[in-house]
Amino acid sequence: MKKILLVPFVLVLGCQKPIPDQGTWKGTMTLAENRQLQFRMFLDLQNPLPTGYFLVGQERTPIPEIQKKGNELRLLISEYGAEMKGTWDGSRWTGKFIRYRKDT
Questions:
Q1: pLDDT level of residue 68 (50, 70, 90 thresholds)
Q2: What residue spans of the chain are helical by DSSP H?
Q3: Which residues of 30-62 are buried (b: 16+ CB within 10 A; e: fewer)?
Q4: What region, left, alpha or beta, does residue 90 occupy, with left being phi > 0 and alpha being psi -120 to 50 degrees?
Q5: Backbone angles phi, psi at 34, to 5 degrees
Q6: Residues in CB range of 23: below 8 A, 6 or more apart
Q7: CA proximity to 72, closest of 85, 62, 61
């Protein structure tokens, strides 16, 4: 009986896809009062120093620092005193946008 219960767990882990090395991402942030902010970004994670940029129409705004560790991804946006960090679950990246302010 224990062997049968273990098989589905192993299959689920085996089916997870690694975080994509390169591509355009579409996302949504939930803001105050449950407002939704959609965004797009391009990430290239295949080099030791990952790169990327946010896309607004044809404009590209570079992401100053990107860190990837396993299934965790962290985008540091020093100009705004903010970061996005989250975890890849095999199909999507979920996490938090954090804005650092002196009053918080």
A1: very high
A2: 2-15
A3: eeeeeeeeeeebebebeeeebbbebbeeeeeee
A4: left
A5: 60, 25
A6: 42, 43
A7: 85
Name residue 68's beta-bridge partners: 73
Give the model confidence (pLDDT) of 73-85 as tens digits.
999 988 888 889 9
Measured at the CA of 72, the angle between CA 67 and CA 76, to 5 degrees, comes to 35
Q: What tens digit of pLDDT does each residue of 18-61 get?
A: 888 999 999 888 888 888 888 999 999 998 899 999 999 999 99
How far CA 55 is from CA of 26, 27, 29, 60, 63, in Å, comes to 10, 11, 15, 5, 10
Using alpha carbons, list the distances in angstroms from residue 47 to 81, 89, 104: 25, 21, 35
